[in-house]
Structure prediction request, 301 residues.
Amino acid sequence: MRILVSFKVTPDYEALRPVDWRADAGETRAGRAADEERCAGDPRGADEVPATAGTPGAPETRFVRRILNTFDESALELALRLRDDLDALGDRAALEAVTVGGAETDAQLTTLLALGYERAARIDAGAEVDFAPDLVAALVAAHARDVRGDLLLLGCCSGPGDGGTVPFLLADRLGWPCLTHVTALEALPGGRLRATCAADDGLLGVTLRPPCVLAVGNAVVSRLRVPTLTDRLARRDAAAEVRAAAALGVDAAALGAASCRPERFTRIDRRRAGVIVGGPTARDKARALYETYVRDRIGAP
Prediction:
């Protein structure tokens, strides 16, 4: 069985400051200066006026670290465990990983090779892939057909601009069934698999036989194992393969142009309103809390 895992490397958006989510934060210095001058006479303000340079409204993420998407990380670990289970059953499994992106993904690919992935590939789309799920699906599907994959795992969604549609678009392009919100995966004799999925009324166990697409959700296994120094030294000569979209027969420019493009980003303020109850002692604070906020609610005299 040839297991292929598709994953995405994303910026650590939690590390961004509120100011980084300004509509012009991802532009060049000249572009920012031009927008500041343009926004000076616009009543909407700089946070709402669309950007004019670079990716419209994209926050600046070059200074934050790159991390694995949470659901993709679960898929990568589940694939490693499935490979071990298949080997224990005497069913040889080949494990491969693929991502769509630039050189920022190389560190993650090197880690996967050290963990025992036999092959790791990076597809250079030559176009912006955020907010272009059809382009990502086309590239990964072409790669899966080229390497003759039997089972394709990926996260149920992979960051901004995905919307959770990539697994379904992949299944449609490959002509395979798709199972979503997978939380656990077990190997069975005879080349069968048993997947546990989250359903509306609980967990659902499904016995299946590849080929199929499995979209991993809130899995029990949520962290990828860490390679040891010995593991890294053993695979230090292994290198990820870089593939071009044209070599896979995908017109990335056309698919990218047909995708929806964002006009602006607006940061959602999730802070909750609150009041700090003051007082010199805990008794005074409790009395102030009771008299100001509690007594009227409970109808006390």
In short: The helical segments are 29-39, 70-88, 106-115, 133-147, 166-174, 229-234, 252-258, 282-298. Residues 131 and 161 are 4 Å apart (CA to CA). The radius of gyration is 24 Å.
